[in-house]
Amino acid sequence: MNILVVGYTYIKDSQRATFSFYPRPENVFFLLPEIWKARYGKVIYHGPKEKNTFLTKTYFYHSRYPFIGGLLKGWMPNFPFILWRLKRKHNIKLVYSCSEPILLTTLYLAFWTKLIGIKFLSYSWENIPYEKKYASGLKKFILRLTLFFSDGLICGTWKCKDIHRPYMKNKPIAVFPMNGLDPDFFKRQSGPKFFRGMNLDDKTVFSFAGAVDRRKGVHVIIDAFPKVLKELPSAHLIIVGSGDNDAVIQEKIEKLNLSGQITRIPWIEHSEVIKLFSISDIFLYPSIPYQGWEEQFGYAMAEASLTGLPIISTLSGSIKDVVKDGKTGILVSPNDPEALAQAMIRLGKDKEFRLSLGQAGREYMTSKLSHKVIAGKFHDFFESIINEK
Fold it and tell me: Which domains does the chain have, with CATH numbers?
């Protein structure tokens, strides 16, 4: 049964890798952008020239366009013509789109897929009820119409499934992440704690990797860190990433005289992430609710946990799907520097406890989020949709 996977998300090698574990990977075809601009054009991805992969012009790279916002993000105008040819040549039975069902882009894909006579699935990470998030009748209309054309839906979290169930009636909904991870790649490296010219052997290293935006809560780490240093003078913090809150974070660091205890790195290669995790003792991800958004999954936490790091995060969004409180990490109230500091101090002082959390995290992620596990879930759900009368 041949499948067509559509969407800019899978332009990244690491996210397509899951499908190499598909029971019959030759049955999976990709339609991807020729070029994709991420982080508002700061990072450019070029579509891969691989077997079973087709490239097309794709427009609207972010969600901050005037009037339309992100409604047309990832729009592929030539999709109907390409799908028609692929159906005739490769007998495509199902189109899976990784874009949210509330976008005009997804509605466009769903409409043409059904018109051409092929089954359609979309994907969602949404974890805030649409009634709370959107006042616009247009977006609700797009959502209902897209799901009307859909034969099923894949949700990234259980909260997402609960939100969409009223819109899906008796249509099937599956729950699993958009891609898995490689346990062999995300494996802690042994050796001295050297990183970017720093010798951190005598330090208790806390790290954060992700967008330095308000919603990720990096400012909460900075507010908590002076208290941590009083109880744990060996603490050192590494912040990897950049974003809208860069200036605020830097100002806080300087105001609190923390420059010697905090290292900032704007960006690192994916291969260097393993080195960061390997020299870290604890991974921080204090995400907060912000402007109608809450953390939808947090792959950085999943990667760190798979590498064997204990996680300190927050009781926000769908983080509980990734971090098991008291078992693979500690979850605290969002936007609470005191609670975050206490969790950091507790793990910083108790090596045995943090190692046990890290080991449990790796075991949990390997059993739930490996490429092979997620590929199997895709296969089973795709087959059930294709074979449904």
Answer: 2-180+370-387 (3.40.50.2000), 194-368 (3.40.50.2000)
